[in-house]
Amino acid sequence: VSVSGCLTNVYIDTGNFYVGLSLTTNAENMVVVTNVAADGTFAFSHTIMTNSSLYLRLMHFDDVNTNAMWDSNELYGYNSMDRSKGHTFYLVQEARDYDNDNMPDFWEVSQNFNWTNRLDCVGDADSDGFYNVLEYWMKTDPYSANNSSNTAILNAIAAVDEKLVGRTPSTAWTIFSLRNHAATNYVRNTNCWAYSYDLTCHSPWNSTRSVYDTGTLISPRHVLFAEHWGNGVTNGTVMRFVDQQNNVIERTLVAKIPHPLYNSSAIYPDLSVGLLDSDVPTNQISFAYVLPDNYTNYLSRGTRLPALALNQFHKATVCDIKDISGREPNGRIYTKIQPPIDITRNGFYTPIIDGDSGNPLFVFLSGKTVLLTVWTHASDGTSVTAFKEDINEMMTALGGGYQLTEINLSEFRALDE
User: Fold this and answer.
1) Is it the case that residue 1 has pLDDT exceeding 60?
2) pTM (2 decimals)?
3) b or e along 394-406 (b: 16 or more beta carbons within 10 Å of the residue's beta carbon)?
4) 3-class DSSP state for residue 396?
């Protein structure tokens, strides 16, 4: 016996799961099978490995016929283990999603959906206006119509989808039909699908980095940046904003601080706040709202809601949200996006690329522009929603007399009502 490994506890979220411990070479050798306790937990005793060529794998499966054995028609998954360490596993249904449609395989099978067809996530089995995938995240019955009236979810969906109808990306993608930075000449594209929304909070140009390191107003005097890009924008930088009538407003950055815990190696929390020399005129230029703490009561996790992702080309790209505030195993909290499955939305989608960093991700609620993140990576950025308190403290430290403004969601029906 050269190495011992101890599996301490396994946590299963929901479902009729069984779990087995396998010693694996070329064959499967199940040594333990046990049903999950009512509270979703169970423990394996200390396990000794006697052959260094073997390794431990935890098998979890949906025991549809309740025979306490895995059958070939039952969905399953594996988690491998390091022989030298004890382990605590957290296994949730969401981890098994073969077709990447954000509906777990186990749930799809239980609801008679197709776990190999991702298109069924944007279906609506009960015709109540909520996609099947939203029914999963709301924990509602996809075959029993919900009261869909006056919900933030449907409001956010309509805010994008209704604007895309009948439009062509080639003419409806760009925010500006004319962008001449040298001549300070900007003309908003009246054909843009997002033209009716107030995007004046976003700066299309600055005097230090041109179209890069752009910032987004979070108050009449404060600008939010991605620190890994925004560190190139220093005091004295002129920030440019364009109102709905194409008038240009310029302000100078007089102070700027990064998030106090920013780590350049981890690029997290990738946020910094700047202070302008004076307020922008709020009758011309608006600032972005943020979500309240109880947003999940109205939006769940935001999975598959449409959003506007800005980039260096000032395109109103459409993407689907994956998670508004998703916590990673390392504790970091990101807002994550993904390509749309809906065909119309997908026509307005383009991936985030190098140079897009710092641009904002917006969702629209009650016609208001709500900021979720500024880009760090190709599909995520530090969650503004999760870091509101820290951002407010940074704004206070800079001065200016403002704090973030939360959008009021109480006009909508809560999902559990």
Assistant:
1) no
2) 0.82
3) bbeebebebebeb
4) helix
